[in-house]
Model the fold of this input.
Amino acid sequence: MEGEVKGGTVWTATQSTFVQTFLANLVADGSKTSSGFKRVHLNACAKALNEHFKISRTHEQISNHLKTLKKKYIRINQLRSKSGAIWDEENFIIRYDHEMYTSHFKDESGKERNKGDDEYINKPLPYYGNLATIFGDSVATGQFAKTSSEPLAVDGEDDTQKDEMNVGTPSSSTLDKDDTAASGNRPSKRAKKDDNGADPLVQAFDHGTQTLASAIRDAASKKALPGLFEAVDSLPGFELEQKAKYYSYLLNHPNVAHGFVDAPLLYKLSMVTEFINANM
Done:
């Protein structure tokens, strides 16, 4: 539902998923800076969102929605890190047993508390993979878009933003101390060589070049659907190797290619994401 509530912007689950998918793909592509997303990224997201849903959102509204999502992400991490909680990483479910669940929502006197946490506990959180990719949790880093039918609330009033938006990294002061353990799983930012002395960056480049060359050979031997290459090449957030492999796949599956070219942007992103998760 499109609208405003008390000065805040209402987001449907589909619109929020679109934003999450777009920005998660930018992260996977290495476009996000250490301090968050730049205005150019948020503008690009707003443009794609507006074109797809025929609405009018600004980069400031995208930024404010990210702040809302970040609060959700932080709260989820706090709840799943509590003693006694079980984190189902495969299905993104925070599992509390009956006693723990009851005591979380009622104190010893029977007074209700933590009402807002009900949407996060003992229920699948299909959008968590996107949030972890965007905000930097190694639990789900590298995972691409997941659909969500869960409403993602109403954003606060829009604030004036700087050219570089610091909305992509949670503040360490807002996380529970137990969450710091997750940081130990994050890979080092420094590039390292493997046991054979080869530079992984060079190997990745060589592999991507070989994959692209294979796609070019396929293109030469098959008549490509008009506009197919442009449709794949213009997708935001994917690496060259990923686009090349999916393009090669479409050349070998013309029926899928026809459907891909005619599909809206969000469907294209979902199709490529599903292919990458299954094949790369």
User: Anything to note?
Assistant: The chain has two domains: 3-183, 200-279. Residues 200-279 form one domain.
